[in-house]
Amino acid sequence: MNFKKNGMPFLYPHSLILFFGILRVVFSLPYRQLEGFGRGFLRLLSIPSPDYSTFSLRIPKLDLDTGYEPRGRGGDSGRQHGDKGDQKRGMDEEEEEGLYQDPCCS
Hints:
The protein is 44% helix and 0% strand. It is mostly helical. It has a domain at 30-60. The protein starts with 13 loop residues before the first helix and ends in a 6-residue tail after the last helix.
């Protein structure tokens, strides 16, 4: 890429760094794995790939508010299936009293 090149190193477009930044957020990849993925992916397109230092310097400067919230094992699965979380489960006292009253004696 920059082998035997005089002067300033190769510049990568903002859109390419943004693409890899989004991949990093969505797949929770460390920079080294992102570098390896980039090399393999961009080799198919015959484009030079950014290295670790380029990723680690430019990706943190991006505003990557993707709206994506990764779900771990069992983290949000309860809410996904209708569970209300920490809310009180069961009936109120009024509902419990109504259950145990005999309808013929009221």
